[in-house]
Amino acid sequence: MQDREAYQAAYVEMDALKRSVSGVVGSVIAGVDGLLLLHDLTGGPEPHDIAALAATTFGLGRQTGLALRQGAFRESTIRSHKGYFSVYAVGDAALLAVLGGEGLNIARLHLEARLVTERLIGMLDVHVQAQSRL
């Protein structure tokens, strides 16, 4: 994980998402390869596991879009008995994964997360490119 100060703007976005959408437990930002970049989880699932699940969700969504000729992956949501797992594309190389509880306002999450991903694209572009060269 990189220095928190270097990514303060991204952390501010994740915090704002948590505060503005009822039921958001936390978020993970990962590369499409499953590499954990940032997270604001304070308990529960391991952030590296969430990053890997986000990449897996992206892979399935990408292949579905290709097979159906519907274009590039944008987002996917899984609703389980006790909560939600939503993954949003942040440009071409990163993902925003959001964990939500049973009471998550999913419609509000979709509206807010789409705006957040647009703002995150510029913030994360340099870091994701550097990670891909490692």
TrEMBL record:
Query: Which Pfam family is an annotated match for this chain, by its short name?
Result: Robl_LC7
Q: Where is the Roadblock/LAMTOR2 domain?
A: 11-100
Which InterPro entries does the protein's record reference?
Roadblock/LAMTOR2_dom
Q: What is this protein called?
A: Roadblock/LAMTOR2 domain-containing protein
